[in-house]
Amino acid sequence: LQGHDDWVNSVAFSADDTRIVSGSDDKTIRLWDTVTGAQIGDPLQGHDHHVTSVAFSADGTKIISGSLDKTIRLWDTTTGAQIGDPLQGHDGSVNSVAFSADGTRVVSGSDDWTIRLWDTATGAQIGDPLQGHDHRVTSVAFSADGARIVSGSDDFTVRLWDTATGAQIGGPLQGHDHYVNSVAFSANGTRIVSGSDDKTIRLWDTATGAQIGDPLQGHDDWVSSIAFSADGTKIVSGSPDKTIRLWHA
Fold first, then answer.
1. Which of 26, 179, 12, 167 is nearest to 97 (CA)?
2. Alpha carbon of residue 176 to chain centroid
3. Where are the WD repeats (predicted)?
4. pLDDT digits (tens, 9 = 90+) for 176-199
5. Cα 127 to Cα 12: distance, rounded to the nearest angstrom
């Protein structure tokens, strides 16, 4: 799928698998038809810097994007129009964005060391920033029930947060020896997976915060992206070592 004029930083499927969204250093977001491979409509333009993270809402009607311009933007997938004003509040680049399963909230993680929650209907920030990380926040995700957020950071830790109160749940999940680049929940919310510059993938028990088993090792370079399969039995990881690896979870 060609059309971007610079690096592509983030891609995601719509829930019905009919479309892909991509975000790029060319400052644009593009929609693609998964059957034909054709670009759908014009690029979504508005960001003033690299687009770092994109995601579809579960119903496929909206896209969320985060950028080095410190803003988050909502887009209508039918018209390609930006919905409302940019979501502003971060004092640094936005590195990761995600929708809650019901589409009512967005979570963002930033170079300003904070995580923020946003109301998708009003664009307003919900509560105070979630603070606790000692370095840039690289990755954020909601649990399927929307009750918790997981975050990964360059402070080498993974943290769990209560979305209702904004409080950190337990202590940091510690074990990585370098930056944490990517985090994800299993579909049932009982486990978290994290990938790091230390070349390892680690599994965590969300109830206890304990690491599950030994680190998953095999990559020859840092782990840039990780995800669970829908049934939670497998993990996929990507790395600058030019490989993608599958693991039993």
1. 12
2. 19
3. 1-42, 44-85, 87-128, 130-171, 173-214, 216-249
4. 999 999 999 999 999 999 999 999
5. 28
